[in-house]
Amino acid sequence: MKDPVTTLDARFSDTDAEPTSWDATQEVLENAQITWLTTVRADGRPHVTPLVAVWLDGALHFATGPEEQKAVNLAANPNVVLTTGNNTWDEGLDVVVEGPATRVTDPEALERLAAAWRTKWDGRWQFEWGEDVFRNDIGGPALVFAVDPTKVLAFGKGTFSHTRHVPRRA
């Protein structure tokens, strides 16, 4: 998402609050060490799990094994919510990303994403790419997904603010 429409929701913000800028929101997404993914099971129950994600080219990316619950859920319903932030009450910024998760299978995109994972975690996440998946020495193949946000919420703490970022309409 580039240059979104940004608005402050005064109902959930301090009277002196300013909207959180897109740059500040994007910085949280770029630097997050852990992100929580919520998918929906076939019976309608939510499934939440922590994972590592990479913000690249205006989308949040994650990987999962094809047999994992999140992959099973995504096969039936691609809509997800990803959250990250700071687990304190009065400082930091929490960010919520909503949108559909779509498979990334393009070899060039997978190569760039594998490099982004290596860079972000100082080489601790080593993915190779091929045959439309990631591979590593820990387990089997990993499906890669991109979430192009339909909405991003930023919750400022200290001075409490509720900011909404949505894509600009063409």
TrEMBL record:
Pfam family, one: PNPOx_N
Keywords: Oxidoreductase
Keyword Cell inner membrane on entry: no
GO molecular-function terms, A-Z: coenzyme F420 binding; oxidoreductase activity, acting on the CH-CH group of donors
Cellular component per GO, a single term: cytosol
Pyridoxamine 5'-phosphate oxidase N-terminal domain span: 23-150
Domain of life: Bacteria
Coiled-coil intervals: none
InterPro entries for the chain: F420H2_bilvrd_red/Heme_oxyg (IPR052019), Pyridox_Oxase_N (IPR011576), Split_barrel_FMN-bd (IPR012349)
Protein name stated in the entry: Pyridoxamine 5'-phosphate oxidase N-terminal domain-containing protein
Organism: Promicromonospora soli
The organism's taxonomic lineage, starting at the top: Bacteria, Bacillati, Actinomycetota, Actinomycetes, Micrococcales
